[in-house]
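Structure in, sequence out. Go:
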């Protein structure tokens, strides 16, 4: 179709890199850094994975109530709930 998708691809790649950085931070036990990276990813590309990662990062950063609330919202949302790590 001739559409130049380079800009879109760059944004999606930057969001993926931010999610990867958040995952690494979680593994290293740095909840605050994980949260920063998760929120950066969400600002670039709002995805289910980024939302789940933010919930985990919130919990790791000591913001348990907020993280659990987000996780519960994801479970209750038909778009995100079924078949995810948050479904029962």
């Amino acid at each position: 179709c001739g559409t130049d998708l380079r800009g879109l691809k760059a944004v999606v790649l930057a969001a993926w890199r931010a999610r990867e950085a958040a995952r690494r931070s979680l593994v290293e036990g740095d909840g605050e850094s994980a949260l920063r990276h998760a929120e950066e990813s969400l600002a670039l590309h709002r995805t289910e994975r980024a939302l789940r990662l933010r919930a985990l990062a919130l919990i790791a950063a000591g913001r348990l109530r907020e993280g659990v609330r987000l996780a519960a919202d994801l479970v209750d949302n038909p778009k995100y709930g079924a078949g995810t790590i948050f479904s029962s």
